[in-house]
Amino acid sequence: MSIAIAPPQLPGYDVVQRLGSGAAATVFLYNQQMPQRPVAIKVSNAALDPASAVTFHREANFMARLSSNPYILTVYDAGITPDGHGYMVMEYAPGGSYRDKVQSRSMDCDQVLDLGIKLAGALFCAHRSNIIHHDIKPSNILVTAQGVPVLSDFGISTDAYDHTDTGFSLPWAPPEVIEHRSNGSESADIYSLGATLYALLAGNSPYQHTYHPRTQAELADLIINSPLPPIQRPDIPANVESVLGKALAKEPDQRYYSALEFAQAMQRVQQTEYGHTTAITAEGIPAYPDDTTRQRRTSTDQGSGPSHRHWGKRTAIAITLVTVIAALCLSVIIAAPSFTSAHAPHANARDADMPGKENNQAEDTVTGTENGQIPSPQNLSGQYAVDGSSVTFTWTNPSPQQGDSYAWSFVQNDASDIGSQATITSATSISVAPQDGAQTCIQVSIIRSDRHMSANPAIACAVRP
After folding, report:
1. What's the domain range around 27?
2. Region Disordered: start and end of each range (predicted)?
3. Within this chain, do residues 139 and 235 fall inside the same structural domain, yes or no?
4. 14 is a catalytic site residue
5. Does residue 36 share a domain with residue 110?
6. Does this model's pTM top 0.70?
7. pLDDT for position 1
């Protein structure tokens, strides 16, 4: 059962809205003032005792170091509020999670292997720093604004395997955790990642697939005692099921020795079945196993080997901007006043991040995004009309240039999506019909004449009087 808490007032951050809550923490969307960008801030629902506060600080420092991996959610800052609540300032990932992809079964086997290799490499980096995730599942794999999948929610201040109603997520937990033989380990994380990849192919967690248990107790018994059911998709090669089957072995010592070994097993299968190999991104680790033939990818994995291991999220930003620019060009051609820039990171996640997409020319096409980053609008604010029939938003351009325009879109009140259609305007103010609910929220980006956009939109809400 989640606990509703008020967003804390934090210096340098403006509250936008609540994104979601759980038993241990609540996540809010804030605008960071300097540098200006939207951020997600996770706040513990309960005040931390002194011992927990020390642990929180130590583990937050570990997580900040892990943030250099492009497939782990970036942590910008952390601290304790005056009334004792721990908080963590994180990268805002507006593209949703992979939970919807499980339900839609929209990913093919090559795409799932691509994702698995990236996340297993990230998990290896965490394990090497003695950090156990504890709760890998589709809803904890987020999609950033650049369309990059990232592991999130490492359970900083709580043990996710504490066997209470607020503990681990049963469908993704290994037998030894369910039976109280372990409170989480590297091997347990490997199992949970294997279960997540299985679900992306099967459409459900391993022991909910085929068996369809009716209770939690029945599901727990299936995980402990029943054989792993086949995925039952004709397009899934037998060696892929074999690799996942080893990750999902009942006994920990029968699984892969490490997340790195799991990633390399997936690389070998990908090479055999699809003729290419996704690189592992981990400091000091070869991007490809010695026994696979390295083939350069025509996707965002190109250049992610050891000599380019810090390509990170900046390259992905360039790739996403190309997608947005293409949409903008199309809108001009057909004389339509809007384009789906707000959806571009989410709708094009596969284009920017999955195999078989011709994105390798993006860095040559989009230039100046690193050293000449387009600023975000400033002083964005909104106010309802006296009769409540409209909302007027205004903003300023910190460095106006000839030909500047602005893309704005609604931020949905339930935070399940950020915007629908982005609309282009040359003015620095708009009047819109109010959204349902207590507030109306928008995001705004600057578009230069060369079609480069703000790296981070400004976000603000007007509260209904």
Report:
1. 13-91
2. 280-310, 346-379
3. yes
4. no
5. no
6. no
7. 53
